[in-house]
Amino acid sequence: MLILFCRVLLSIAGLLLFFLFDQLSANECLKLGVLLAAFLLGIGGVLHAWRCRPAAITVLVRIVVPVFYLDAAVKGFLRGYFGMRPNPNAVLQAMFATDQAETAEFFAHNGVALAQAAGWFVLVTAAVLLADRRLQRWQPARAAAPGLAQKGLAACLAVFLVMLHLNTTMRRENPALFWPLRYQQYSAQLAAMQSMQQALATAMAAPRDWNVRYAGEDARTVILVIGESTNRASMSLYGYARATTPRLDAMRAKLLVFNDVISPAASTVESMMTMLTPADIGNPDAWMAKPNLLMLAEAAGYKTFWVSNQTRNDGWIGMLAGEADESDFINYGTGRGENNFDANLFAPFAHALRDTAPKKLIVVHLLGAHPSYDMRYPSPFAHFDEADDAVSAQMASQGRSSWIRNQRDEYDNAIRYGDYVLGNLIAMAEQAKSGRAAALLYVSDHGQEVGYSRNHAGHSASDKSGYEIPMLIWDNQQPRPSAAARAALESRPYQTDKLDATVLGLLKIETRYYAAHDDILSSAFTPVQRFMNGLQYQRGAPLAR
What we know:
Blueprint: H1 2-20, H2 26-49, H3 54-82, H4 89-96, H5 100-109, H6 111-136, H7 148-164, H8 168-173, H9 175-203, E1 213-214, E2 220-227, H10 246-250, E3 255-262, H11 268-275, H12 293-299, E4 303-308, H13 315-321, E5 326-329, H14 346-354, E6 359-365, H15 390-397, H16 402-431, E7 437-444, E8 449-450, E9 457-458, E10 468-475, H17 483-490, E11 494-495, H18 499-507, E12 509-510, E13 530-532, E14 535-537
Helix pairs in contact: 1-2, 1-3, 1-6, 2-3, 2-7, 3-6, 9-13, 14-16
């Protein structure tokens, strides 16, 4: 039993290495350590006390320890990629709502980080198992038969292992149960969403409680363009050193460009659940009981269109898009892993613009700059490949790896192509029936960390770059404000979990669900405290803990 205790301590030491190198949080390390000790002492103690072959304990160690270490390595990789442990909906959605092509793209894009995580797992596991093999040599060839006390201790440890699993929190941390339970949780959430969507659809038959009234022109078109993974830090429109947005720069005088906007989350689904519904950070489940923007627009007499370059079967977003009067998904591949460029949306967008309905809401959902970045633009837009300029020099001085610098070049190419797409969408809206009142709001769902703060390229919930996004408005009826008024308006601090209020204002819809103090264009707008990954956010300052 003494040797077994030593082997347990050695195994826990391996977990501590994952903690010391920031692969596990202290809480995760403690729980996994307790579970690992309980497994080895509980099952191993029983094997010893009832005179099983000593080799059985060795087999137990060589199976259980690698499983725990693999779990720690996976969690460590996901922590580095998402900036959070793999419990939140964002990670579950990304893991379980993906497809074969997007999975292959993910592995290709994150090959270096995955190789590092795999190498760390192999290194720690090999070191611990080799040390454990040396410990076995100290085991006496013949040991005294276990007495009643040893059997009692072994039985108590086995009972302790069972009792641990009666606790919900500890049971969920068991590596053998962690992922099955998370998938069960994800499936239950998806079923709940489908059920709630049906309930909301039923409620549409009697929207009188929504107190909806249209207070605008006889003919009006509102266009909501939702970007993907676009960070304003890489847009020359916001002062970036590379000319990534020449079209938007040229039409700057026609635009309101908001310079202090952040997303509510660093992932698509979590962000859009609050952007397009009355839900917000403080009440994230409000979308389950209150009507979304499409429902309110239709209740006000709008014809709704959803034009998307993302996959149709995309969980909650797919269900929301299905509520539009007309929906057109041009991405016939297997998801965001497809080389389907956003300019292919021009034709269905033009079709929606030509529709004769007097009032129209058109939602355009782009693929934007979603990783892998090099798949988001055609070759003529590879303007910054291997660029030798101020940006590349700055990144080199910051110690960014060559791979990250290459990722920034590709990301900036994707931003430049996105400028071409958005510039054309605005031009098409401007040319379509000039006598009709029209407004276009562009906003990204979230940002990206591409070497701005660290050697990482991808989604990030732990960096400001994962949230700091562009937002702009073009309106053919809006009088141009004075320079001072424009500057004050564009500098308003905003978080897009309140975006539904601004869109309702553009739609000129009065309803109990419209809050003027959350509408960034309203004279009644009131800034509120903003949060990023649960921490208070203030522009230009570190996150307050």
